[in-house]
Prior knowledge:
The protein is an alpha/beta fold. Helices cover 52% and strands 12% of the residues. Strands 3-2-1-4-5 form a five-stranded parallel beta sheet.
Amino acid sequence: MMSNKIILDTSALLALINNEIGADIICEQLPHAHMSTVNIAEVTTYLHRNGYADLEKINNIISLVRPVEFTCEYAMLVGQIINLTKQYGLSLGDRACLATAKILNIPVYTADKAWNNLTKALNLQIIQIR
């Protein structure tokens, strides 16, 4: 496992932005936090949809994480894991996050309880923040 690196799910970064339960855990992990560019798109979509119009502030929020470029390798794994994840109703963004963590072989932080059952199926360390 790559030392000290983690992947954040969209729900984890939104917990920090909205000061929800688990925000303290994410705050502690920010120096190690990486995020798929697909999930960065989800976060910026959420911010714009919910009235965050200040682009400088949005850029400051996004700069808290290190982007992981979503390549064809990641896209292929997203497709491969659909049958392991479909019963949990995971979105494309959820699977992009999981694929990124799997390829990099690093833990993923999430607030999404549906992921609890995926640790064994994906052979992945999934850390719930609440």
